[in-house]
Design goal:
The protein is of the alpha+beta class. It contains nine helices and four strands, in the order ααβαβαβαβαααα. A four-stranded antiparallel beta sheet has the order 2-3-1-4.
Length: 307
């Protein structure tokens, strides 16, 4: 057998002995990595879901230009309901803003009433509403929702227009809340990674202390620091990889069952993140967990290599 294979067998033997000698610590290490990396992965999936919802809903954002009615009391409606000339001018100005304005839909009072009744048909309030109480409106779909302010500024405070409403403002509040939840989940994940690094360091120090005599003997007979470090590094990396694989399974369960079969079937008003997000989150968890284990173990064993 070649010297290289002999060294490999020796190192793997040392790793196995280290794991078998401290099986309880190894299980605790794997469990901690699994929990912390799962939290980190969940925070990444929450971020992917927030971005998915933004893309989905912001593409559907409409700007509504509500016209004056006989009951309007705003300063732009002092002359009564919007005239046909004002409506025609509004449409002309909207058409002149193409291609930013992608679609223009005019909703009459009867259309608004029909939509209101459909939405609130089971509510007693529908019995007290008549078509003349609801305003006519232009509903505009933009080719680039990010430029909604251009349309809002052009038509706000214009005679014949009671109000200009942009759905984006409401959605932004929702996404701010979701972003806060994402930050909270990410904070928990990072806090658990810190706890995990402390556990890895303590595990390595305990294991190295228990084997201090043989480390000292090997150091005296000429073993390099890297040869002494390698078993401990591999033990830590082993725990991180197993914990990362468990975390990957948890993320896959969340996507395959919780999201696709439970949440998505009940909440059909939006889209959800795909498997690519799970793959990306899993890779990040595995890589970050492995690097954390390696770096922590590297510095954790350093003091025990001095003879």
């Amino acid at each position: 057998m070649s010297p290289f294979m002999t060294r490999v067998r020796f190192v793997l033997g040392e790793v196995w002995q280290g794991i078998s000698r401290s099986i309880t610590l190894t299980i605790a290490l794997i469990a901690t990595f699994a929990i912390s990396l799962s939290l980190l992965g969940v925070s990444l999936l929450v971020g992917s879901q927030v971005n998915e919802m933004k893309d989905y809903w912001f593409d559907k954002v409409e700007i509504s230009i509500f016209l004056c009615t006989s009951g309007s009391d705003t300063a732009t409606c002092t002359n009564g309901p919007a005239t046909e000339a004002q409506k025609s001018q509004i449409r002309t100005d909207l058409e002149a803003m193409q291609p930013l304005v992608a679609e223009i839909f005019f909703e009459s009072q009867q259309d608004a009433y029909n939509r209101f009744i459909e939405r609130f048909k089971s509510s007693p309030i529908s019995a007290n509403v008549t078509p003349d109480q609801l305003p006519e409106s232009f509903r505009i779909k933009l080719s680039n929702p990010e430029e909604f302010i251009t349309v809002v500024n052009k038509f706000t405070s214009r005679p014949g227009i009671e109000a200009v409403r942009d759905q984006r403002a409401t959605l932004s509040k929702l996404f701010s809340v979701l972003g806060g939840l994402q930050a909270l989940a990410l904070g928990f994940g990072l806090a658990m990674l810190v706890v995990t690094s402390l556990l890895v360091g303590n595990t390595i120090r305990v294991t190295a202390y228990a084997r201090r005599r043989e480390i000292g003997i090997m150091r005296l007979v000429g073993a390099s620091k890297m040869a002494l470090r390698l078993p401990f590094l591999l033990e830590a990396v082993f725990g991180a990889l197993v914990g990362g694989i468990i975390a990957t399974g948890i993320l896959s369960f969340i996507k395959g069952y919780l999201v696709d079969q439970v949440i998505a079937t009940s909440f059909t008003f939006t889209s959800f993140f795909g498997w690519q997000a799970v793959v990306s989150a899993s890779i990040i968890c595995l890589v970050s967990g492995t690097l954390l284990a390696f770096i922590t173990a590297w510095f954790g064993i350093a003091r025990h290599l001095k003879v």
